[in-house]
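Archive record:
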Amino acid sequence: MKDIILASFLAMSSKIDSSNIMILKSFLKIATFVGFTLLPLTELYAETYLTNEQAREALWGSASMSPLGVTLTEDQMDSIEDASDTRVRTNEVKAWKTETGGWFIIDQVVGKHEMIDVAVALTNDGKVKGIEVLQYRETYGFEIKHPKWLAQFLGKDHTEILRLDEQIKNISGATLSSRHLTDGINRLTHTWDQVLRHL
């Protein structure tokens, strides 16, 4: 296709005069349109691993829990950002409180370009009990859902700010997803400390 367009262009360009300029412009518009329409379209990718309900069962079994509509104030968001060194993107926290005072939270973090849906369980003293990746929308970097990598977060809480390549090992090829999930856990443990523990 490129060869045909180039040959046609060269043949026309050797005879360009004022009368052929309009034809050349029309030809270039058509060639550009055809070229763009023949480009392969990027496929949308999303892998769903667990539903919210499946994650809830995986993290808390049959424990009874109640949904709590938590809306953070501006002051709370600022306080969480300062404490966790992580940006708070939304003031809504999708949280359920267990009968024993633990928490089940549905959250999102950015991967490289797309959002990653995660479920996080925190104990009644704010320690990470478990993490499940619910949906991953990137075409690579899905290794962050591996239980061995996620196990690094178990028992962590707001008393330390987790850093990639320090407390949390990086995954080659999934650096941004690894970093952003680490930041998300920092944000949620500090959300527990600043807000949830008082509910």
